[in-house]
Specification:
The chain has about 130 residues and is α/β, with parallel strands linked by helices. It has one domain: 5'-nuclease (Rossmann fold, 3-Layer(aba) Sandwich). About 50% of the residues lie in helices and about 15% in strands. It is built from seven helices and five strands, in the order βααβαααβααββ. The chain has helices at about 10-20, 25-30, 40-55, 60-65, 65-75, 85-90, 100-110; strands at about 5-10, 35-40, 75-80, 115, 130. A five-stranded parallel sheet has the order 3-2-1-4-5, with helices on both faces. The radius of gyration is 14 Å and the shape is globular. The relative contact order is 0.21.
């Protein structure tokens, strides 16, 4: 039996790397367990760089410098965005318009991963397994 796969939402990834005390007890336990396979979406890098560019994340320069190294020190793998993920994101019957969240949700659904997120918007998406 393989390790439980958890896809980290972007804020979960940031908090795990910079402020782990902000994680819920359940999320922290999953991230610290040897039985967990932690996965970061490639779209998280795009989301963070984009938000930094428009002035929303001025305090994350340290994280963005060496981002790949920081992320790969935490997670087992980085998940690229495939055409299947993109198509599923576009087809989701979900009123949420944030393209970053739509990609991450689609990746979790397509790959069968549990999404680790505090964002309640994801709970409106049927079939998505969420941990927080």
């Amino acid at each position: 039996m393989g390790r439980t796969p958890y896809l980290l939402d972007t804020h979960t990834l940031v908090w795990a790397l910079t402020e782990p005390r902000r994680l819920s007890r359940r999320a922290r336990a999953a991230l610290e367990s040897w039985d967990s396979k932690l996965i970061a979406s490639a779209v998280s890098g795009f989301e963070l760089a984009n938000k930094r560019r428009i002035g929303k994340l001025a305090d994350l320069d340290g994280l963005l410098t060496g981002y790949e190294k920081h992320v790969l020190a935490l997670v087992s793998e980085e998940l690229p965005i495939t055409a299947g993920h993109a198509l599923e994101a576009g087809r989701l019957a979900w009123d949420h318009r944030d393209p970053f969240d739509r990609i991450i949700a689609a990746q979790a659904l397509v790959e069968g991963y549990t999404l680790v997120t505090a964002d309640s918007a994801f709970s409106a998406l049927p079939g998505l397994d969420i941990l927080w």
